[in-house]
Structure formats: structure tokens, C-alpha cells
Amino acid sequence: MKTPDQVEKERLEKENEHEKAWDIWEDDTIVAWKPRRMPKAIVAPKRDLPLHAESVNPPEEYLFNQEEKDQWEKSAPEDRKTNFIPSKVDALRKVPLY
Predict the structure, then answer these.
(1) Residue-wise over 13-27: b if at least 16 C-beta within 10 A, else e?
(2) Of 15, 22, 46, 84, which has the fewest CB atoms closer than 10 Å, so is most exposed?
């Protein structure tokens, strides 16, 4: 049995627990945390899926012909629609480094 004062005190302590800020850059040598008191893991942001032109094997309509390639090379980098020239690769092992 608890008195109303004790119940109120525990409720305030629980509310204050949620307001605590965790220092995620703190030294990792502290292992004394209990699993239920650990903060939730920070999930890495997901990357956007590649567009058709960014594919390793894009459809023919996304590949540049010689005229489009020359026009792309002559234009200023800030005026280009894409920052790469779409190309088709025979096998995944032949994909150049990203």
C-alpha cells in the first residue's frame, strides 16, 4: 500500500525519466545500462531507389545517342538534367565503382 504522496512522487519520477536526454556520443565503456532503460537505436535514413536512367541495365530510351552525349558534355554542369551519362553494363561484376 502506498500513500497518495508516494504515488504522486513515483508518477513525477516516471514523467521526468522520459525527459532525460541521452548523450549518444558518450564513451562506450559504460555497459551498466539495463536493456529496458536503453534509448531506442537511431535508424539510418534510407536512400531513394534509383531511377530508370540510374539502373545498371537501363532501357534503350534512357541511353544517350552520340548527339545527346555531345550536347550533355558541352552544357554547363548546373544546366544538366543528370550528373552522369546512363550506360548499359553486361554483368554486375563489370559495374564501375559508385
Answers:
(1) eeeeeeeeeeeeeee
(2) 46
- 0.90 exceeded by pTM: no
Contacts of 22 by beta carbon, 8 Å cutoff, 6+ apart: 39
- Give the Cα separation of 48 and 58 in Å (integer): 17
Cα separation, 20 vs 39, whole angstroms: 10
Residues comprising the chain, all counted: 98
Tens digit of pLDDT for each residue in 10-66? 888 887 766 666 666 666 555 555 555 667 778 889 988 888 888 888 888 889 999
Please say if the pLDDT value at position 8 is more than 80. yes
Give the Cα-Cα-Cα angle 61, 64, 65 (nearest 5 degrees). Answer: 105
